[in-house]
Specification:
Shape: elongated
Distance between the termini: 65 Å
Largest sheet: 4 strands, antiparallel
Strand order of the largest sheet: 2-1-3-4
Order of helices and strands: EEEEEEHEHHHHH
Low-confidence stretches: none
Helix content: 25-40%
Radius of gyration: 24 Å
Number of helices: 6
Number of strands: 7
Amino acid sequence: MLSADAQLSLVVIWASSGSSLREPAVRVPLPSGGRYRGDLDLLLPGERLGGTLVLRTVLTLVDPGTARQPLAPSRPGSMLWSDECRVRLQGDAPQFPIAVIDFTQTPLPDAAAWHLDVSSQLEAATMGAVLLYVNERSTAVVRAFQNAAAPRPADRLILSAVYADVARTMVEAALHNDDLVDDAGFDDDTLGQTLQNLLRRLFPGRSTADLRHLRDHSPHLLTTQIQAAVGIFRES
């Protein structure tokens, strides 16, 4: 049994499978003795979350107090109790990581509407390896993403153009990386697996070597084939 004046702390730690990040969200000191009931308010960085979100609540010992019992925990930081909650943030159609920023404050062209950043690290988690930047000064594009759940006709055209351009950029990134081949094995939710699945979905039955040959000898045709594969401006 703990001493009556032992000091405890309740800590909530979040972890995201999509970004492979893990950080403490909140730490609350608990009063000594008796029972404590209260609510915890968490504010998590949405742009760093993806896949499955794990919230782990841990009761830890801060100070064992003065009247230490022989069998009671005595080391500060000892875990006395824990509970875990999992929330699936993405379903069969994963959400794409997007950040709305002012391009004038970056090296990106001021007049550009969006920019996709793709890492070359195929083993990295996809949610941490790709990021679509949307220029906040391009109000039509920002509005299209805001209305994505119920897009207007103009929004559909913009989203279709963005989707096609993102697919083209990711296909080019895949073909540019020589480590990405048909029989390469990548872990779940990694960039390598995502790029492999994208090539298989857009170009079923075609090998990566065949697509690289097309890129090298007829890059414009490859771009047109990507447009056709994603169904740019196709009415749904």
